[in-house]
Amino acid sequence: MSNRRNFFRTAGAVALGATAVSRVGAASLPEAVYQTSPTMQPPRPPDTGRPYNPVATLNGWSLPWRMHNGVKEFHLVAEPVVREFAPGMKANLWGYNGASPGPTIEAVEGDRVRIFVTNKLPEHTTVHWHGILLPSGMDGVGGLTQPHIPVGKTFVYEFTLLRAGTHMYHPHADEMTQMAMGMMGMFIVHPKDQRQMRVDRDFVFLLAAYDIEPGAATPKTAEMTDFNMWTWNSRVFPGIDPLVCRTGDRVRVRVGNLTMTNHPIHMHGPHFVVTGTDGGWVPPAARWPEVTTDIAVGQMRAFEFDAVAGDWAIHCHKSHHTMNAMGHDVPNMIGVDHKGVAERITRLVPDYMVMGDKGMADMGAMEMPLPDNTLPMMTGTGPFGPMEMGGMFSVVKVRDAVRPGDFREPAPYRHPPGTVAYEFKGDLEQPARAPAPQGDRNTMRVRKPSGGGHANH
């Protein structure tokens, strides 16, 4: 208890020191490095400071720092950005250093970090270091633990990283707007001992959701439930990077959830174990094999597996979260013959297409006219045809010949002979079926009430 008590007693002194830096050090701010491309930047081992095994941020990058008297100094700039969700659609978001999410911050257990935050938004902001144990005055809750960062001003956060783990950063000021506009990033604290929790490939990404009407470019920040763009690092399939691995690699995937619902992240192929949570590493005796881990709002999870050759889907298992521009008022037209209606409609709208009467699979292959700056509901093409996916979906691509440090997308997987599902060409016997029950006037029918009237019970 004495160490913990002493730690919090020093909070005021640490905050005072950070204030002094902000006053005298403005002329010597560390460089604010920018990156606007959605192309993943390969992980770079550190040039200074303690060694660590860097992470690979899907469609993102890690923020460089400078060493100043033994302290790692980073510079974040909060500002409006333009993010390409996938080719054909861009969104007006808020983020950091030219990107949304902002760059991943990487440091090592025991490091002293000093993070300069410059506010170029049209309103005040703060930064909360989600899951990191630090002095209360550095926690980033505007009005409670610090003054808000005014427009055009730079504040300084300074603290020592006491434990390794997977963390996030985001505002605690006008959260409904600022987080809905894409202000977030990952903060990875590596173990002091490189041998601890070592893996061959370490991937990182954040879950975020947006409501952007077709033809628009700015999210509706007041939306709470009906989102239509489900993203990993503000990208949707097929714009999300694949997770490229070598056969036999020990692979870690770290995921943070800053949406407004939970996400059961499911991976095909090899089983995995959850090795990290918001609170740190999970002891080996407490782990168990899984193929799906549910990540609740505000949570982080890290899971690991041994890579097996092939193309393995990885996605949220909520089916609406693997679609783009998803509408919530689409009627179910399965079994409805509306060809006659369609013929009359095409006289007025020549491009009108009949769809939905047999299911929505045709959407994966259709090339329908779309409003500007939006994406098809289902898209993406694989070696065998349309994949009928969007949103929170990617592929773990494992190959024998991938070199260490190489994250480039490999050529299509060459399946060994006899390992691809195929059409059966023999004779099929018709199965015997019991007669189906027939409906009559006593069959219960349920009707959902609509309009402003009261339902009869």
Automatic annotation (TrEMBL):
What's a single GO CC term here? periplasmic space
Record region (Disordered): 407-457
Q: Where in the cell is it found?
A: Periplasm
Which PROSITE patterns does the record cross-reference, listed alphabetically?
MULTICOPPER_OXIDASE2 (PS00080), TAT (PS51318)
InterPro entries given in the database record:
Cu-oxidase-like_N, Cu-oxidase_C, Cu-oxidase_fam, Cu_oxidase_Cu_BS, Cupredoxin, TAT_signal
Any one GO molecular-function label of the UniProt entry: copper ion binding
Source organism, top-level taxon: Bacteria
Query: Would you indicate the residue range of the signal peptide?
Result: 1-26
Primary localization class, coarse:
periplasm
Q: Which UniProt keywords apply?
A: Metal-binding, Oxidoreductase, Signal
Q: Which residues form the Plastocyanin-like domain?
A: 85-193, 217-330
What Gene3D superfamilies does the record point to?
Answer: Cupredoxins - blue copper proteins
Query: What is the recorded name of this protein?
Result: FtsP/CotA-like multicopper oxidase with cupredoxin domain
Q: What is the organism of origin for this protein?
A: Pseudorhodoferax soli
Q: What is the lineage of its organism?
A: Bacteria, Pseudomonadati, Pseudomonadota, Betaproteobacteria, Burkholderiales
